[in-house]
Amino acid sequence: GTARELAGYLAALAGWVAALAAAVLPHWRQSSYAGDAIITAVGLHQGLWMSCAAQSTGQVQCRLHESLLSLDVHMQTTRALMVISLLLGFFGVLVSVVGMKCTKVGEDDPVTKGRIAVAGGIFFILSGLCTLTAVSMYAAQVTHDFFSDSALPKNARFEFGSALFVGWGAASLSVLGGTLLCCSCPTKERQAQYYRQAQPSTAREYV
Q1: In Gene Ontology terms, what is one molecular function of this protein (predicted)?
Q2: What's the start-to-end Cα distance of the chain, in Å?
């Protein structure tokens, strides 16, 4: 059980760090090089917080999205989901440390400690689901814009950026780690055994 909890915590922690990296990276969508006329002088990258232009000389210029209200609805929704995901993951990190068997906090009550670990796993699962929803929704919008009947040539449109794949990996790790932590839920037999062991000592104290 301890090894399973530790593996779940490390996987969920890696997923949370990857989700943080995905949220910060300005590579949610990038310039498409499809089509006959390939433009390689300037490559455009857009993220949740900034847009960058990379020239063939290696120079990169970035600009923050200073206006919130001017952004598209899907961009604002994706931002909100990623922020919620990071907050849930942060709470999962703190709660899981308290509930894991390999820590000394609350070791006198293993039943409550197991329930705390399950709560941390639920936080991680919710965090992964928020990340998965945000990344998938953004990818769906990029796909829709790419295949829409637009006057723009294909090499002026956008494709999936590396941050989307990082986000999908982060969501998978968070859900996997949270599921492993949820396996720490104390069974009825373990609860009954603990209460049978604790009852005599409590009775002796009153005597």
Answers
A1: structural molecule activity
A2: 36
Q: Enumerate residues 6+ apart whose C-beta is below 8 A from 33.
A: 39, 40, 155
pLDDT along the chain (207 residues), means of 10: 85 95 91 61 82 79 80 89 96 88 67 84 95 95 80 70 94 94 66 48 46
Token reading at 80: 């909100």
Domain boundaries of the chain, sorted by first residue: 2-26+68-186
> Which of 138, 114, 116, 120 is CA-nearest to residue 174?
120
Return phi, psi of residue 43, to 5°.
Answer: -115, 130
Separation of alpha carbons 94 and 128, rounded Å: 16
Phi/psi at 135 (5° precision)? -65, -45
Q: What is the pLDDT of residue 174?
A: 95
Stated pTM of the model: 0.80
Beta strands in the chain (DSSP E): 29-31, 42-46, 50-55, 60-64, 158-160
